[in-house]
Amino acid sequence: MQIVFLNTFERAGQDHQVESAQLSICERQGQWAVLWMEGEDSNPQTWFEGTSWEEMMTAFRHGAARKMGEGYAPIIDGMLEERRTAAGSFVSMLQCYGELHSDQELFQSLREWRRAKAISEKRSAYLIATNRMLWMISTFVPKTSDELTQIPGWGNTKHASYGTEMLAITEAAPRATDFPLQWVTEKLDSAAYTQWLFKQKETKYKNQMDRQQAKKHILNTVQQGGSLEQLQSELELSRRELMDRIEQLEQEGYDFESLIARELVEVPEDEKQLVWDTMSLVGDKYLKPVLQQVYGTVESSQLDKPVDVLYERLRLIRLQYRRSLAIKAV
Known about the structure:
It is a single chain. By secondary structure, this protein is an alpha+beta fold. The protein has 4 domains: 2-74, no CATH class; 90-170, DNA polymerase, domain 1; 206-257; 268-329, no CATH class. The chain is 58% helix and 12% strand. It has helices at 53-69, 90-100, 104-121, 125-128, 131-140, 145-148, 156-170, 184-187, 190-223, 228-235, 239-251, 257-263, 269-282, 288-295, 307-329; strands at 2-12, 18-28, 31-38, 45-50, 73-74. Strands 4-3-2-1-5 form a 5-stranded antiparallel beta sheet, covered by helices on one side. α3 packs across α5. The two termini are 43 Å apart. The model has no long low-confidence stretch (mean pLDDT 91).
């Protein structure tokens, strides 16, 4: 293989010695490989092998972020796309300090509150508050509205909805620090902060790798005649998230007509035509008006199919509808 990129990494070892490693990108006849070799080791680690440039670069950045989090520094900087800033952002410092110093007892109480609220409002828990936000609240323990709104992400809308309940939880909790939070910039350990930043990048690229693998799996399974139920089981995704992925891939230009035909094989043609005509009339951006127009406004218990099944049916038909509009526009 021909080496098309090579960078040397160094970190401080034992007895003031410098440990070195090399990260390379190689190519042969359209086949890419990402290799990591430490010291004089003649057997490099293979981080990626394949033909996809996008997947290769994600694996490259994921591995580089992981090694930089372990203390390695590249001779040539700019490995992770983004510009490095020595001071970092104040918000990221608050997030880091919150994760490293959270009060676990208070954090668990906040999680219990969030879970109960998500159930009562029938919303995803992260829409109520993310773990990162709860870590910061359990670390800095705001006691007033002014203090609570200094927590990054806790804006006016969230405060109007949940501020009173949140302050009722933090009111009785002890705290050793105070507001405003500018003191964090001095108290935060710089080495721990740097490691935390690289961990965030590592997680980011790991998520990208997972999505790329899921994309390949979806496309291969559909090509082989698989079903939504099979994909849901194998990828361990909710049906809603799976449909989100398929709609995104459809927008990227991938054809799911065979899958749609298999999933809608038992849907009567007159029903599909009614959905089609309704989308032409009321639009296809929002499905609730289409659902009400086609299936009526009766309670879900009176329908022959659960509402979530009907929504999935509408999303599949909408894919066909939008493709037909795109073809006509060409």
